[in-house]
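Write out the 3D structure for:
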Amino acid sequence: MSRIREFKLPDLGEGLTEGEILKWLVAPGDEVKDGQPIVEVETAKAAVEVPCPFTGVVTKLFYEEGTTVDVGQPIIAVDTDPSAGDLPAESADPVSEARAAVQAELSGAAGAPPAEDEVEEGKIGGKTSTGRTAVLVGYGIKETTAERRPRRAPAAPTTPSKPTPPARVSAATVAEHAAVVAPAGGRAKAKPPVRKLAKDLGVDLALLHGTGPDGVITRDDVQAAVSSNGAPSEAPARAARPVRSGERETRVPIKGVRKLTAAAMVESAFTAPHVTEFITVDVTPMMELRKSLGALPEFDGLKITPLALVARALLLAVKRNPEINASWDEAAQEIVVKNYVNLGIAAATPRGLMVPNIKDADALSLPELVGALNDLTAVAREGKTPPADLTGGTITITNVGVFGVDNGTPIINPGEAAILCFGAVREMPWVHEGQIAIRQVTQLALSFDHRMVDGQLGSQFLADVARCLADPAAFIAWS
């Protein structure tokens, strides 16, 4: 087995295909141990620290910070036997390497690492005893069965032609491949975003020399070609270079959590038929209850926010209206009513909007719920929410009141049937016991999926939440 072991970026979640290198925690020459975190990677779900499955000395980091890497690509090389002395000088034969690369491309396995470089059984990124791939804690096991992505079929010829027999790799082709690595058939190696950029800028990829791993053409290669030859006049403005500081525009790449959130919101808005209802509530009794609870020893050291009491009211309303805690199973044509509540809390974080959830929130006492909510929001603000906490939610609260906003029409979190919007609590004139008085008032909005929730169910649920906040006796009666 080779001393140099390459660790490939593992699947950091269910079906994730890429991750961005946020920060390297090691450098070439550093000693690493099995299980030691080596890099912080941001995926479409969260930022996580990835541990190394080898013990040894780091010899190479394949990517710089800020680079987006496909799952399965090597990210770090480790010398697992540094005590054996210096590594022998490399004496690579370019023609032999090119021949192997061309043959691998023709067989549909270009860039596949040799078996001896695979991660040991049971390590993250390696196989388990059942033939599956071990992934990070919180995601379970992912099947290893995979198929090569099908190539696009060439355009149909205008005149009938005889089938072309399988091409043979000639010595000339091998020598050419040693200079410019390209797949068989003349199709340049580049990722879809790079192909789109080249198309927008009018650049012929077949004429470029790829500087990426294995000759892959990068965005820099395309932009360098434009800089040297001049940008074509027909190139659309949206494909122009990123605007620099001091100019009239700033372009922010859409990636990571923001990219996933955008896709999820679009899917939800155009898949689930949204209905939104509103109610205005005198929450003066709730605010008084909050003060009383703060004096009890059970809440010592806990911050009781209005959101915590709204969350408790929602859980009690779910108990009275369980059909609202459901999801739509399109394949089975079934409505799945959940007999548990994983309560999602929409949170603004440094990496964009996240919706971590409190598992089995309905089984928690009020002090436990307050503590769980405090922990959830603190971790979310630091951008360190574990990936497992971002999946499996059943119903969500979004608190726009914290920004001084009265109300809104929230978009349902995908996979759920409803979302409650909690607005700002304000002092307002209100008719109380037949007299106009200054009371603390808020607005609630409930968006629900009309495929699962009809108007009656949605209205009853929203009214139950409001009653709990206006009359704390309901907290006791419905518990």
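Residues 257-477 form a domain with the Chloramphenicol Acetyltransferase fold (CATH 3.30.559.10).
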